[in-house]
Amino acid sequence: MKILIVGGGMGGTILANNLARRLAPELRSGKARITMLTASERHMYQPGLLYLALGRVTPDELYRDQASLLEPGIALHVDPVEQFMLDDNKVRTKGGKTHDYDVMVVATGSRPVRESIPGLAEHSHTFYTEETALAMFKALREFQGGRVVVAVGVPHKCPMAPLEITFMMHDYFKDRGLGDKVQLHYTYPVGRVHSLENVAKWAAPEFDRLGITYETFFNLKEVDGAAKVVRSEEGGETPFDLLVSIPAHRGMEVIEKNNLGAGGWLPTHRTQLNLEGRSNVFVLGDATNIPISKAGSTAHFEAEVLGENIAALVKLGAPVREYDGKVFCFIEAGKDRATYAMFDYLNPPDPQPPTKAVHWFKMAYNKLYWISARGLL
Amino acid sequence: MAERKVVDARGSFCPGPLMELIGWMKLAQVGDEIELLSSDKGSAADVPEWVKKVGHEFLGTREEGGVWHIVVKKAK
Hints:
The complex is a heterodimer of chains A (377) and B (76). Chain A is α/β, with parallel strands linked by helices and 377 residues long. Chain A is 31% helix and 24% strand. The two termini of chain A are 26 Å apart. Chain B has two helices and four strands; from the N terminus they run βαβαββ. The longest helix of chain B has 12 residues. The radius of gyration of chain B is 11 Å and the shape is globular.
């Protein structure tokens, strides 16, 4: 069986390694073959960008060579897909090669689109790429006081990021002796400070305690750089000296160009993870249209289900598990305290008060990720 | 021609039904309708509230077997 994995991010990499171990005998005998097509020879630990923006990690800590992360037996090609030919079970790459498959998994991820809001790219800082995170780090270092506004696009990757960057900036400025000179103002698209009700119930009193102001039902409409104000679709307007954005995301352009899903989001069965209408094409991670968090843990848990199911297709002829919507998100609550939210399709999270222990576990996970990517954790 | 798209946000605690709706409204054309499916009864209140604030059109809500079907129309 020819298994093709399109995308070498967190989900694609965990899946490839998971499958390679499950199918070790079949790979040796030639009964199965795993091929990965990806756009970069380097693999980035994307959650680390949050820390880069605050100078707590350096860029080199966020990367490993993609080849070094993969189990032997996985054929890696740094040659991204440009054309999907689903009816023929084939893809064509940027380099002009054609790969056929029996089973394909699409894990192409998502991309920030600050440019979708007028003025946002020119007048805000963000941390969703190495380049923008470094620019934000420099801007924060140079900032000597004033009003810092956090603005949030929809949909966005990592739903805890708006809270985390706000709490972390609070402690960052306090440590620099600027606590009295910086006013943090948080805005959020829905009618409470976080989409998760229990997280909102915890975060709003924390904001009050720390003197962080906030307003809800604030969906980005435009940024007026000359007047230094950000306006909302709801008619709101708030001034800023420094604007930090959690930008809206879209799926990758290749998905839209192949007409596989509006916004670049692939229509995906929420428990089987197959592309709608296709029994031999699966989707995981940010690329799906499943209404759950676009987060690394989502990709991780989906990859584990698909690893088990695709291996079962080879060995048993049928899948064996369903994805239950499981997500686990750490929530940094400052420079040295954190909590977490764990939930699935049926069970909401019940976050506990932040502790130093959870923060240090998150710090440890930032290193353990490289074991996780190898499919060992 | 205007279309009606169904957005199935049942079981979505995060980003949640309203955030799902906001994202899909951005992709819709003026005049399109979206039928949001939510298993959170709170959606029956917070979706109309947001729709009114932004100036879209709220077309109605009905509940069937613990699922709220909320229909809105993109007005601008």
